[in-house]
Every structure is written in C-alpha cells, then in structure tokens.
Design brief:
Keywords: ATP-binding, Glutamine amidotransferase, GMP biosynthesis, Ligase, Nucleotide-binding, Purine biosynthesis. InterPro entries: GMP_synth_C, GMPS_ATP_PPase_dom, NAD/GMP_synthase, Rossmann-like_a/b/a_fold. GO terms for molecular function: ATP binding; GMP synthase activity. Its EC number is 6.3.5.2. The chain is of the alpha/beta class and 327 residues long. The chain folds into two domains: 185 residues, Rossmann fold (3-Layer(aba) Sandwich), CATH 3.40.50.620; 102 residues, GMP Synthetase, Chain A, domain 3. It contains ten helices and ten strands. The strands form two sheets. It has a five-stranded parallel sheet with strand order 3-2-1-4-5, sandwiched between helices. Strands 6, 7, 8, 9 and 10 form a five-stranded mixed sheet that branches. It is globular, with a radius of gyration of 21 Å. The two termini are 42 Å apart. It binds adenosine-5'-triphosphate. Adenosine-5'-triphosphate binds next to α2 and β2.
C-alpha cells in the first residue's frame, strides 16, 4: 500500500472518540519512528502546523523543537498567541524569531504583488534555514501536510509540503502525522488536543499574511492601521455571532489617500475596505448581507480608534469576477 493514499476503510474522524483513537495511534507511530531523536517543526500558528505541534508535544515532548517566525505581517495578537499556547501552556521547546525589520526593510518600496509574495516566501525560507543551521542534533522534519495537499499535488498544483525530499535534504526523514486527514478531521483532532477554537477553526490566511492586504508598497504606518482595523472587524463580527456564519472576512488598506476633515482641518487619510465572503469551494463566492447596524458600528470604531483612516467601505463584489484577496 502506498503510504500517501488514504485507505478506503479509514473512518472519517467526526467525533472526539475517533480523534482520541487517532491520536493514540499516531503517538505510538511517531515514538517508533523517531525514538529518542529530535524533530523540527515550522510552526505558523495556522491550523495544520498547530495541530501537528500539539500532537508531537504529546508524543515526544521536548524532543520537538518548534520555530515560529514573526515576519511582521501577522494579524494582531497572533504571534503572541503562539507563544502563550505552545511555550507557556504546552511547555514546548519553542524558538520565536522576530524578523519584522528584516522583512519590512526588504519590502520597502516594492509595490508589485507577485514580487512581494516572492520576497516574503524566499525570506521565510532563509530565516528558517539560518535558525535551524544553529541547532544541533535534529534528525527529523515535521510538516503539517494534510490529505488535500497530497491530492492537489497529484494533479492540480504543486504543494510546497509534498513531492518527496529535496536532494540537499539534511534530515533522516519526515514526520507527517496528519497527512491522511481532511481539514475537518484535523480540526476535530486539534480540539481534542486542547487547542483553542480560534486556532483550530481559523479562517484561511495567506502565507504572505497582511503583506497582500496592505496594497502596493507596504509602509509601517499603513500596516499598523490595517492590523488595528482588522482586529476591530474580527472582534465585532465575533460579538455579532458572525464568526461561524461568514467563511472569511478581513480588512484591506489601499495605497492612496482620500480627503477627510477633523477639527475643521482638511486631512489626507486612508480608506479601509472590509471584505467578507461566503463560499463552499473557494472558487465561487458570494458577499453576505451584513446587518447595517453592525457595519455602522465597525465603521464608527475604525474611524475613532485607528489613526490615519477617514473612510470605511464594504466590498460588494462576488467571485468571479473579483478574487477574495485584493492582490
Ligand atoms: N510564520 C511562520 N513561522 C513558522 N512556520 C511557518 C510560518 N508560516 C508558514 N510556516 C510553515 O509553512 C507551512 C505552510 O504554510 P502555509 O502558509 O502554506 O500554511 P498552511 O499550509 O495552511 O499550514 P498552517 O495551517 O500550518 O499555516 C506551515 O504549515 C508552517 O509549517
């Protein structure tokens, strides 16, 4: 049997009991695979790598070394939550790297979205490699590969986690405990492992993070305004009971200003755009009809609390023709 093919007999993990059973099996397998050797994991704070981290901490404790890179493009509180959850609560061996300046300096003046993506991806690999070169005695690399990654790699598109080991791969092997699971199963397993629901049920978040929501050339002041506005949106959607009802929502900040007026003075401030979509397959999206009162309250809060913003807009465009992200 190919190890990358989910057996037809494998039951879908839909209950805590099934998740428990899966976790016990994986703990056993991982312990057999790695023995007393060390395992390295790049921990983003996203669903997949977080669940792998929690599972491996249970299986091999301090033999797992997690590396979290803060590229300065995380949402408000995200890196802090990784530290709180994994270092403080689960007592993981966590290396936290604040590479904000490195990323933002490199991105300075770069307006083209594809170039921004390439810079962020390339720099991430560099930072991760530099950090791991300093570590000694690591034998395995753990990855949050899930079954759709394997399926997609077979036909649709290459996935960075999948496709065999590169020639210069310096580890003895890969540890991929959730590679036969679908996303919904990973979430059930994560909950049973005690991860908070805002981590386990997290919306999709692009690899380049807020970097592609701070349109054009990223500036620190606009990035700050974007992060604050996004946090307000998330807080208010949560209060209004929309977090579970809307598939994805976030804010975007364009790289142009608009005229505002404050205390009788004219100002040139940025607009903030709210983007919210519902979808089943991410190929076709509709825009939810959010209660006007909720939108108005969010607008008031952003205008009052976020420096440099004078307008808030709601994006009504479905996909197609508009994509979910703005760039
Ligand atoms: N800031 C980061 N710090 C550490 N590792 C990261 C970071 N960003 C990405 N990674 C690593 O790269 C992998 C792929 O990242 P990607 O953004 O494509 O997310 P993903 O496939 O949805 O996985 P996840 O749910 O774990 O974020 C992650 O699983 C993680 O191992």
């Amino acid at each position: 049997m190919c190890l990358d093919v989910r057996p037809e007999s494998m039951e879908r993990i839909t209950t805590p009991e099934l998740a428990e059973k899966f976790i016990e099996e994986q703990i056993d397998l991982v312990r057999k695979q790695v023995g007393d050797k060390k395992v390295l994991l790049a921990l983003s704070g996203g669903v997949d790598s977080s669940v792998v981290a929690a599972l491996l901490i249970k299986a091999i404790g301090k033999q797992l070394v997690c590396v979290h890179v803060n590229h300065g493009l995380m949402r408000k509180g995200e890196s802090e939550q990784v530290i709180e959850m994994f270092q403080n609560q689960l007592e993981a061996n966590l290396i936290y790297i604040d590479a904000t300046d490195r990323f933002l300096d490199l991105l300075d003046g770069v307006a083209d979205p594809e170039t921004k993506r390439k810079i962020i991806g390339g720099e991430f690999v560099k930072v991760f490699e530099e950090e791991t070169d300093k570590l000694e005695g690591i034998s395995f690399l753990a990855q949050g590969t899930i079954y759709p990654d394997i399926l997609e790699s077979k036909g649709v598109k290459a996935h960075h986690n999948v496709g065999g080991l590169p020639e210069d791969f310096k580890f003895e092997g890969l540890v991929e405990p959730v590679k036969l699971l679908y996303k919904d199963e990973v979430r059930v397993v994560g909950k049973v492992l005690g991860l908070p629901s805002n981590m386990v049920d997290r919306q999709p978040f692009p690899g380049p993070g807020l970097g592609v929501r701070c349109l054009g050339a990223i500036t620190r002041d606009r990035l700050h305004a974007l992060r604050e506005a996004d946090a307000i949106l998330r807080e208010e959607f949560d209060k209004a009971g929309l977090t579970d009802k809307v598939w994805q929502f976030f804010t975007v900040i364009p790289d142009f200003t608009s005229t505002g007026v404050k205390d009788g003075k004219r100002l040139d401030f940025w607009p903030v755009i709210i983007r919210a979509v519902n979808t089943v397959d991410a190929m076709h999206c509709t825009v939810p009809e959010i209660d006007y009162k909720v939108l108005k309250h969010i607008t008031d809060r952003i205008l009052n609390e976020v420096d440099g913003v004078c307008r808030v807009l709601y994006d009504l465009s479905p996909k197609p023709i508009a994509t979910i992200e703005w760039e």
